[in-house]
Structure formats: structure tokens, C-alpha cells
Write a structure and sequence with these properties.
This protein has 319 residues and is α+β, with helices and mostly antiparallel strands. The chain is 15% helix and 39% strand. The chain contains five helices and 18 strands. The protein has helices at residues 2-24, 184-189, 212-217, 248-251, 256-264, and strands spanning 34-37, 48-52, 59-67, 75-84, 89-96, 104-112, 122-132, 137-148, 159-167, 172-173, 196-201, 206-210, 237-241, 267-268, 279-281, 287-292, 297-307, 310-317. The strands form four sheets. It has a six-stranded antiparallel sheet, with helices on one face. The termini are far apart.
Length: 319
């Protein structure tokens, strides 16, 4: 009897094991819906970058197909959101799928990006989600980067220094960053940077500009003007007469390259007793050019007015 009972118990245990095994190997249900999006034609479905004209936007479509899970409920909603530059997701579409849901759903939605504003670009991340009647979801996302096409480099305009008054006392000028002429003490402190010097001849009532290196390297008769300045200047400057006496106000809006072209089209100045280009006699209303040979910078000077032992000018110089 004991043997029989044991046998019966063994048979019962085998039977229960078979039931459990059959239940565990039947496979789990697959209720999750599926969604795919297309990148064919006007449809976008993958990360892309577009360079557009400023103010232009990209028009495109989001296209795809969704299906319910093999063991899932019918599809109920299609939702499309966008996140601008990493911000919160904003809904741009939230629609029901049919009246009572569908097993499969094909969609094609027209979308417009933001306008192109910066060369660095702005991002737009689109997420497409399908939702079934059991609130199970499937999603897919892609990112667009919208950039402004690079434009021409900005025009590099020269430095404008206006309302500068020279005298024989305040006769030395640094166009790099100066705003007012220096006297002998100030000139000595910046003697390696001076690129303009003014000189008024008391004997002949002659106003002129002189290459600072030329004036400081030798005794200078100056037709009655003072002798050589009391310090050595290393900067070499040449002066040019310009054809047509160009208008200063027009030149002030020109590019640095245009300024250089105008100066280079001029003729080295002449002044008795001086090498060509080293001294230029000036008159009110005159526009003339100069070139800092040491640094390669070009400039324009407009003589606004002449006074007793003085001149007032506006200066344009390459930065």
C-alpha cells in the first residue's frame, strides 16, 4: 500500500509539473503597437541639417504607418510633438485614429520649421507617438537643425578720428589709438608709434605734414620752421596726393580695402628740399593720403580748416 500511495503521489506531481510547464511555454502576449516613419520624397524621418536663407523656413512632411500589437488593442490616437532647442515638448498634432480605432493607420502630416535666424543653427526635435485603446504606446523621434546660410563677411571700416587740431606745439600723432596730438613730452613717450607730424612754416605761412622718421633723422630747415624734433621717431610714413580730391564723407563708409586702393592710386607728394613722399603741403578742403610703411596701414586726411599756426583735420586709418 505504501508503494502504491507513493506511486500515485508521484503521478500526481508529474501531472502538476506538466501543467505548469505548458503554461510557462505558451509565450507572453505582445500588446505593444508599432510605428515606422519614412524619409522618402518630401517626408523627413531622420536627423538632418538645413542651411536656409535668413527668414526662410523648411516645409516638409512627417509620414509613416502604425499597427496595433499582435495581441494588443486597436489604435486610438496619433500624437506629434516638437521640442525647440531642448525645451519642453509642444503638441502640434493630437488626433483620433478612426471612429472606433484601427488595426493599422497610415499618416502624412505637413509641417513647417521655424525660420532660419543664426549661422550656428537652432534645433527642432520631433516625436511621433501612436497610442492604443489600452494606452500602450510606440514612439520615434528625429531632430532638424535649421541654420542661416553664411553671408559675406561684414565690411571692415577704417578707424575714424574726427575733429583733430594740430599746432607746432601739439604736432605729433599716433593713428593707432590717438585722439589728440601730443606735445614734445608726450611724443617722446610714444616716439616709436608716432606716424604723423605736423609743421607750420612761420616764414612762408606754409602748413604741411612730414614723415616723422625723416624729420627726426636729420637737421630740418623747414623753411623757417623749427629744427629736428628733440627725439628720434622710427616710423616711416609716405604722403600721397590723390586724384580728384575724393570726398571724405563718402570715404568714411568705405571698406579698409577700398581706402588702401585709393591711397595706392595716388602720387607721392613733392616738396622742395625733401624726398618725394616725405612732406606734403596742405590747403583747406584738401584730401590727401598717407601710408604707415612700417605697419603697412593706409589712411586719408581731410583738411577741414587752417588757422594761425594750426590745422583742423578728420582722419581715416586702417585698423
Amino acid at each position: 500500500m505504501k508503494v502504491l500511495l507513493r506511486a500515485r503521489l508521484y503521478i500526481v506531481l508529474l501531472t502538476l509539473g506538466a501543467v505548469v510547464y505548458a503554461g510557462s511555454c505558451g509565450g507572453e502576449k505582445d500588446e505593444n503597437p508599432r510605428i515606422t516613419i519614412s524619409s522618402a520624397g518630401d517626408c523627413l524621418g531622420s536627423d538632418q541639417t538645413f542651411e536656409l536663407n535668413q527668414g526662410e523656413q523648411k516645409n516638409f512632411k512627417i509620414c509613416g504607418t502604425a499597427t496595433k500589437g499582435p495581441d494588443g488593442k486597436k489604435l486610438e490616437k496619433l500624437r506629434i510633438t516638437v521640442s525647440y532647442d531642448g525645451g519642453a515638448a509642444l503638441a502640434i498634432l493630437d488626433t483620433l485614429v478612426g471612429k472606433s480605432g484601427e488595426d493599422a493607420y497610415t499618416f502624412e502630416v505637413s509641417v513647417s520649421s521655424r525660420v532660419a535666424q543664426t549661422e550656428a543653427g537652432n534645433t527642432e526635435r520631433y516625436t511621433v507617438t501612436i497610442i492604443d485603446k489600452n494606452n500602450k504606446t510606440a514612439s520615434t523621434s528625429f531632430t532638424l537643425t535649421i541654420k542661416k546660410k553664411p553671408g559675406p563677411p561684414p565690411v571692415q571700416t577704417p578707424r575714424a578720428i574726427e575733429g583733430v587740431t594740430f599746432t607746432n606745439t601739439n604736432a605729433f600723432f599716433v593713428t593707432k589709438d590717438g585722439n589728440a596730438p601730443l606735445d614734445a613730452s608726450g611724443g617722446d613717450a610714444r616716439k616709436s608709434e608716432i606716424d604723423l607730424t605736423y609743421l607750420y612754416s612761420t616764414s612762408f605761412d606754409t602748413h604741411s605734414f612730414i614723415d616723422p622718421n625723416h624729420r627726426s633723422s636729420s637737421e630740418y630747415d623747414g623753411y623757417g620752421a623749427p629744427a629736428a624734433i628733440p627725439f628720434d621717431c622710427t616710423t616711416i610714413t609716405n604722403f600721397y596726393t590723390l586724384p580728384g580730391n575724393p570726398n571724405y564723407s563718402v570715404l568714411s563708409g568705405a571698406s579698409q580695402d577700398t581706402l588702401a586702393t585709393i591711397v595706392d592710386s595716388g602720387t607721392l607728394s613733392t616738396f622742395t628740399g625733401n624726398p618725394n613722399g616725405k612732406r606734403i603741403q596742405i590747403a583747406a578742403g584738401q584730401t590727401f593720403g598717407f601710408k604707415n610703411v612700417t605697419t603697412g596701414k593706409h589712411g586719408i586726411i581731410w583738411v577741414k580748416s587752417l588757422g594761425a599756426n594750426s590745422c583742423a583735420v578728420d582722419i581715416l586709418v586702417q585698423k
